């Protein structure tokens, strides 16, 4: 099997086009082919329609519109020969066996003998699709089941047949994880594999139980989201998101395919679901499902479906007291144990118990039918459905023995291997031993090491090994090995507060040690850093501590300039939201290694401020100043306007690729598809830079365009105000921003030191912080999480 550089995706439907998009996101060359229409001259009409739907998809399938240049369209009639150039051929056509078999016969004739061939089927047995093909084909054929949307859902199920070469499976798993950024699990060739088999059971059972026992849509969603470790879409919103026709279709398909499943009746959809489909109440894609988005008095409301009349009514927001009581218990394990313990006295806790435990018991009965390992089952639900913990990790949280006994008292069948495990004196599905995590194997009847990703660095594991050098409530400093340190944030939202700055200065002092070669600024949180701690700033101002805020700005300047001019490389490793001060850290690093899903922006204008940690200065230095150094006769205004608009409109990138286009990342800054590999690659980058690293020289390296350029910037702001696209106060903020970006009151353009712009940043920041309207914006953001346009 050669290295995969070129992919042929056969089928430009929803999944095929989205798979093509994600492969292009990962830097691969893609041939996207589909059938030629029976009529008309344009034989690419079908593939082009699918391609355009993908381009318009929300959330976006593409990390940047520029990556479409890597996708070439074609049709099966004229362009099937392109399959011969592909290293990987993935089929994603209609879910019918015969068309798939016929297509595979053509692929076998055309594809290279060393090309991997796979199907994205979600329900048709892989062995049936490969039936009739030669031995060489069957050895390199397997299932590659992506979850929709492929860009965002981490799960990739790999399904080998009995003929698939194990080396092909290993290489595809490696490719999926390293190149596509997926979490790959090995599934058996059984109906709907792991994720949809368990997910469909849990989904249908949860909805049917609610409808049959008088639970309302809103109250179920209030208790089945983050409270129990599930996404905010909870139960009914999830069906609206997926599409009720899809959810029901998967369940009905499973019902037909698993006649031996002792619980197959669960897959029979509730009659009310069938009636909703008849009425086209499919969810978001038809504008109405269990919820309907309505505009009232200029605000958005989500009306709720009345399942008796099938009409939508205003939300009632029912009180669920047990939910708040459960939240106070702490972590997920504590919350779940509390809820299960209260099931006898509280109807909402009873709902959790009576839907959670059947799902856990069902998962036990499906192993080893759908998977040989508990970890792959757990990962399938964690990566495919966004669950904080899969079924066996959840069961461990509740206590295996006592939960198994509770299940039996409820009439739920527990798999015999669970009883065998307990009788042998094994109390949990997972345990740690000698620094390694082990999982119980129902096949081997013993604990085996959990597969570890060699490119994943666990900071918690390093902590267990005693490699945390310093810690406070907001940040830690750890030893990554080989002389590389890691500054980790763990404040609320990974925001920048006094504790983070204090640990940052500790990191700078550690960099002076001879044996230390460099620093990574990174963490394993969902978000790298959401910016300054607004609550801390608001409290300081309310208590008359504007001077204290000014001192904090000075401290942040010293810290970030310390990073920028460090004698040893400082590499930032952003992921997720990287906003405000979080982005300013990246802008001052020697290099940035960014997760592909990094959403970067200087968003201070949304809370009535401007970037004051050097972000404004850096945007001028990186755009205007850099352009003029490379081409001294270039007019500075176009570069200045672009940077000004990016900050003034609080523009946030939709990916790391877009962040590069906005000037937040340099061309030399690597983008990593798998966020789990981010710290590893950042550490490698430090080591690569260490021998040749020299800090920048400094001096007068920022071009200040002066008052005339400032006036030109403000013309565009006034136009937006006249068109009512910007408020009067937006203009005030923009005025401060324009003054800083053009160097203050300089009458003539000139080169100035970075400190000059930093001083102006601080003045503008403190001035805006003294304005009542800025306080209103900060308060709104803290209360609602959304910007206020006052």
Automatic annotation (TrEMBL):
Kindly state a single biological-process term from the GO annotations of this entry.
fatty acid beta-oxidation
In which pathway does this enzyme or protein participate?
Answer: Lipid metabolism; fatty acid beta-oxidation
Q: What is its EC number?
A: 1.1.1.35
Keywords, in A-Z order: Fatty acid metabolism, Lipid degradation, Lipid metabolism, NAD, Oxidoreductase, Signal
Residue stretches making up the 3-hydroxyacyl-CoA dehydrogenase NAD binding domain: 6-190
This entry's Gene Ontology molecular function terms read: (3S)-3-hydroxyacyl-CoA dehydrogenase (NAD+) activity; NAD+ binding
* Top-level division of the source organism's lineage: Bacteria
Q: Which residues form the signal peptide?
A: 1-20
Which residue range or ranges hold the 3-hydroxyacyl-CoA dehydrogenase C-terminal domain? 193-292, 355-412
Swiss-Prot/TrEMBL catalytic activity:
a (3S)-3-hydroxyacyl-CoA + NAD(+) = a 3-oxoacyl-CoA + NADH + H(+)
Enzyme class of the recorded protein, top EC level: oxidoreductase
**PANTHER family xref list:** 3-HYDROXYACYL-COA DEHYDROGENASE FAMILY PROTEIN, 3-HYDROXYACYL-COA DEHYDROGENASE-RELATED
Give the family from UniProt: Belongs to the 3-hydroxyacyl-CoA dehydrogenase family.
Q: What name appears for this protein in its UniProt entry?
A: 3-hydroxyacyl-CoA dehydrogenase
